[in-house]
Structures are given as structure tokens and as C-alpha cells.
Amino acid sequence: MIPPHDTPAGDRLSAATWHPGAIAALQHLRTELHTHRIYPEISYDQGQPRLVISAELTVWADQAGAVFCWGACFLEEPADQAPTDDVPRVARRIAGRLGEHYVEPAPWP
After folding, report:
1. Residue 91: how many CB atoms within 10 A of its CB?
2. DSSP assigned state of 63
3. Most buried of 38, 86, 90, 99, CB within 10 angstroms?
4. Cα–Cα dist 98/109, whole Å
């Protein structure tokens, strides 16, 4: 029996079957966002991985891990999109959406 998607068991099943490329892309973006002093958490609510940056901004990747999407609501339009093969540019665009003080990467100590 397959558990319903809105239950803890359903969330675990969905996370386990989600393509590893999407998870790897989100982890790579998360690391890049750290250089902009943005520290998102990876969330698996609803079974699909995403970065929760703020109450108004969530980032997710398509199942193949080829395209990032980000917007106010998870899996809802309108959402900005960019390919996952240019993580630094995506991180700058997301940082720019949050405000001026996030745009430039933090200097290394």
C-alpha cells in the first residue's frame, strides 16, 4: 500500500524517490548562497526537497536537477527559473532579490 502524500510516511517515500540530481543541485546552491551570507535550510516537507530562505522565498529544483525555480510559494507560479549549471549566477540573482547587502559575496577571512 502506498501512503498518502500528505502524511509523514508519504513524505519519506517521496523524498526517497526524488531524483538525487535535484538534491545535489540544491545542496550545491545552498553552499554557494553561504558566500552571500544566506543560510537556508533544506526542507523535505511534502516530500520534495527545497531550500527555505524566508517566509516569502523558497527554491526548488526540477526532478532531473536541471532547472532551479524560486518564488514565494513552493511549486506555484509565478516563479523565476534558471539552469542549475550556473550556480554562482543563480545565487547572485536570489541574493539580489533579498536586498542590496546580500549581492556581493562575503570576503574570506
Report:
1. 24
2. T
3. 90
4. 24
CB atoms within 10 A of CB 43: 15
Q: How far apart are CA 52 and CA 54, in angstroms?
A: 6
Beta bridge partners of residue 59, listed in sequence order: 51, 70
What are 23-55's pLDDT values in tens digits? 899 999 999 999 988 999 888 877 788 999 988
Distance CA 32, CA 39 (A): 10
The model scores a pTM over 0.85: no
Return the sign of the alpha-carbon dihedral for residues 74, 77, 83, 87: negative
> Which residue pairs, CB below 8 angstroms and at least 24 apart, start in 30-35?
32/87, 32/88, 32/90, 32/91, 33/91, 33/94, 33/95, 35/91, 35/105, 35/106
Contacts of 15 (CB under 8 A, 6+ apart): 44, 47, 48, 49
